[in-house]
Amino acid sequence: MSQLFEELQFFADHTTRAAVIESFAAIILSFLLSLLITWVYRITHKKGQYSQSFIHTIIIMSVVVSVIMIVIGNNIAVAFGLVGAFSIIRFRSAMSDPKDIAFIFFGMAAGIACGLGFYTLAVLFAVTLSILIYILFAVDYGRKDEDEKTLKVTIPENLHYEDVFDELFDQYLQDYKLLQVETTSLGTMYQLTYTITLKEGITDKVVMDAIREHNANLKVSIIMPSKTY
After folding, report:
1. Cα-based distances in Å from 103 to 59, 65, 117, 188
2. What CA–CA distance (Å, rounded) separates 175 from 166?
3. In the chain, which segments carry CATH 3.30.70.260?
4. Which residues contact 86 (CB under 8 A, 6 or more apart)?
5. HSE (side-chain half, CA atoms, 13 Å) at 157
6. CA geometry: angle 134, 33, 16, nearest 5 deg
């Protein structure tokens, strides 16, 4: 009987050691993959300086989620308990860039795969998506045309704004669209807002001077396109 207990104890210890080693491997792998994810985030980030705390958040979230998945395992009761516990957490900080949210889910997905023991899938997922994100960044996929500018023109109220500049715009602009009409100066004038794209070889000054000849030399402004870095 004592030999049986010794064998059971040995088997339990062996199982525990294997579980600990597997859990440790999942944590380390999720950490390494999150480093890859944050490296991709850093080199593809355009909008000014990124936050170091956000980088750390992605890494921490990835590791924490992997541990949560290890703890849950196949235990449904534990899963519901954790859902209830984490439901009280509220994140107050708003994301300035929607892509930041995607990177958080990226790190969490890698952590989930590691926690569930799908190590090969986790590595393939992290590496493949990282490469795809870098390709999108390298080719600048989805970039808005930076030649498009905003034109604001003030005209007297006695001018019909619908077609007052059509002939002039056809001469100098490749494309234009009226976005907004509003009254100004106590209703004595209109302010028209357009999006415009200049023809090749045409400067802003040429367009502004031409408009001033038609709007009684009132205010004309051209707003340059905002650029991200």
Report:
1. 10, 14, 21, 51
2. 11
3. 148-223
4. none
5. 8
6. 165
User: Cα(187)–Cα(39) distance, rounded to whole angstroms?
Assistant: 54
Q: pLDDT tens digits for the chain (229 residues)?
A: 555 445 445 444 545 666 778 888 888 999 999 999 999 999 988 766 778 888 998 999 899 888 888 877 766 665 665 655 555 455 555 666 778 888 988 998 998 899 888 999 999 999 999 999 999 988 888 776 557 889 999 998 887 777 788 888 999 998 888 888 898 887 788 899 998 988 888 888 899 999 988 888 889 999 887 654 4
Superfamily of domain 148-223: ACT domain (3.30.70.260)
Do 44 and 225 meet the contact criterion of CB atoms below 8 Å apart? Answer: no
End-to-end CA distance of the chain: 73
